[in-house]
């Protein structure tokens, strides 16, 4: 329990780091924001990996954060699917084989999945807090 | 390293006293070790975020190569996480 309380400080530190360097604010346009969300997920994944490999941390806590990472992955894969669709439609527009309207729809879908991915990353942070 | 610890101490100013209020030397050592460890981890996360920010500043759209490279890392990290807990 003591170790759990101690490691609950990590999200706070992650949050502080994110305030200084927020890739989503740096990213321009829907596709870069989607890529930023994928990148942030990977950075959080690396923090989770660091913790699950630490034998001094209680097993149930390690299992819980690994489960949160596992649960988030389908959302991240859906975001990637939306990114691929957007890139394909954008290429088709450049080739003159589709319309602006289809690009707008793909961009809206991509933005929606980017938001869902952010929610999934927050859920991993909640698991890190031990909530 | 010392800077990291100081930053971590400032960040945790409202929380650390919970752990050291008993004033026992071993508890204080534990807390200092913990803060050092967390500081290192936070620094690693911050470095990754900075690298991602810099990459995004230089990007002009997402290429298939850069997307594939990121996914190779995501898949490998996911596998390592799940492998680490499979026998718990």
Task: Walk me through what this model shows.
The complex is a heterodimer of chains A (131) and B (88). With 131 residues, chain A is mainly alpha-helical. Chain A has one domain (2-129). Helices cover 85% and strands 0% of the residues of chain A. Chain A is built from six helices and no strands. Chain A is elongated. Chain A starts with a helix and ends with a helix. Chain B has helices spanning 2-11, 16-20, 25-58, 64-85. The two termini of chain B are 33 Å apart. In chain B, helix 1 crosses helix 3 (25-58). Chain B has one domain. The chains are: A mainly alpha (131), B mainly alpha (88). Chain A binds chain B through residues 5-6, 9-10, 12-14, 16-18, 20-23, 26-29, 31-32, 34-36, 38-43, 45-50, 52-53, 59, 62-63, 66, 69-70, 73, 76, 80, 83-84, 87, and chain B through 8, 11-12, 15, 18-19, 31, 34, 38-39, 41-42, 44-46, 48-50, 52-53, 55-57, 59, 61-62, 64, 66-67, 70-71, 73-74, 77-78, 80-82, 84-85, 88.
Topology:
The complex is a heterodimer of chains A (131) and B (88).
Chain A (H helix, E strand, L loop, with lengths): L1 H6 L2 H11 L2 H4 L2 H24 L6 H36 L5 H30 L2
Helix pairs in contact in A: 4-5, 4-6, 5-6
Chain B lengths: L1 H10 L4 H5 L4 H34 L5 H22 L3
Helix pairs in contact in B: 1-3
Concise summary:
Chain A is 85% helix and 0% strand.
């Amino acid at each position: 329990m003591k170790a759990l309380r101690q490691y609950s400080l990590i999200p706070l530190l992650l949050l502080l780091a994110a305030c200084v360097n927020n890739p989503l604010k740096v990213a321009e346009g829907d596709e870069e924001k989607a890529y930023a969300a994928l990148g942030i997920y990977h950075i959080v994944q690396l923090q989770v990996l660091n913790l699950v490999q630490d034998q001094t941390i209680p097993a149930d806590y390690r299992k819980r954060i690994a489960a949160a990472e596992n649960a988030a992955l389908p959302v991240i894969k859906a975001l990637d699917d939306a990114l691929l669709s957007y890139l394909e439609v954008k290429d088709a527009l450049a080739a003159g084989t589709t319309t602006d309207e289809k690009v707008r729809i793909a961009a809206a879908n991509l933005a929606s999945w980017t938001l869902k991915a952010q929610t999934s990353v927050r859920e991993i942070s909640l698991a890190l807090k031990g909530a | 390293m010392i800077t990291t610890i100081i930053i971590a101490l400032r960040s945790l100013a409202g929380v650390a006293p919970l752990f050291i209020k008993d004033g026992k030397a071993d508890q204080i050592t534990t807390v200092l070790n913990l803060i050092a460890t967390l500081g290192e981890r936070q620094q690693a996360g911050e470095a990754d975020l900075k690298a991602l920010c810099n990459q995004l500043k230089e990007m002009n759209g997402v290429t298939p190569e850069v997307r594939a490279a990121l996914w190779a890392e995501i898949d490998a990290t996911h596998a390592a996480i799940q492998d680490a807990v499979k026998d718990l």
